[in-house]
Fold this protein.
Amino acid sequence: MSLPHIPVLSREITELFGAMKEGLFVDCTIGYGGHSEAILRSFSAIRCIGIDRDKTAIEFSKNRLKEFGDRVGFIQGSFGTIFPTLKKDDIVGVLADLGVSSPQLCGDDRGFSFSSSALDMRMDTNAEISAEEIVNNYSTEELVKIFVEYGEEREAHKIASLIAANRPFKTAKELADLVAKNIMRRKIHPATKIFQAIRIAVNHELEELRLLLDEAEKLQKGAIVGIISFHSLEDRMVKERFKEWARECVCPTEAIRCLCGGNHALGRILTKKPIVAGRDEVKANPKSRSAKLRGFSFLRGLNET
Ligand SMILES: C[S@@+](CC[C@H](N)C(=O)[O-])C[C@H]1O[C@@H](n2cnc3c(N)ncnc32)[C@H](O)[C@@H]1O
């Protein structure tokens, strides 16, 4: 079977979840099944549920993982909606490999790449709002807000005004070419940040991550969460939330001494620094160069004292 997507940090993922014995592993972004396959092979008493917004990816994974029979199940939808509906008492591991898969990124009809002949960027092709809607119909002020908040783009005003003056756009290529003609960037394609911003807005990516992290707080003792992010906005969110979960003392910062008992940590951070791909992996799979994996292990739930 030819594999359309190479999973990043696959060995590191099986190591991170190494303490799992039996129970349910939730792959929130099963994509083309690479991480789930590694987990199912490495842990014979683990069952897996794979979630993905992308119907094509789910269909591929069903076929790829059929040898595991009823150890694996699939749900199409967003993890922000699906994960809260799952019973938490059996879950021992949760993985989210955020971002887009290779077929999404490279598919000419998906609109994620600078050369794409579509202007779409929906991970779920049935979702209501596409990049075309945002680029052609949002006001200049709304575009600026998206470019600043989700792209941290320094020239947000200039780019938003350029877009407003040159609409309508039919393809991602037209948009990328316009930005490239007018904005100078040395290290990255000049449209990188606004493409990231539009993609995040189309797929509500930060909101999805927030919903997942909120819900993960209900996981049982011993459960492990691993999140791979590909840009600093997501990585920052994960890092801050893990720090919050690991905080022993919840006294106000102005308190002179600890009065809370100092035993409020929900668990411990498994990755002091994010795990990144080694040189060999980056060479074999350049997409892995921006991946950052962080892990957390729960010692107790939010409601236990
Ligand atoms: C980087 S790929 C995952 C690849 C996968 N780990 C593998 O081994 O093939 C990311 C996948 O997550 C999915 N995705 C991203 N955000 C999602 C969300 N909020 N809910 C469900 N799926 C999501 C995308 O559709 C995509 O298929």
Q: What stands out?
A: The chain has a mean pLDDT of 95. The beta strands are 23-27, 46-52, 72-76, 91-97, 224-229, 267-269, 292-298. The domain at 10-101+217-298 is CATH 3.40.50.150 (Rossmann fold). The longest helix spans residues 232-246.
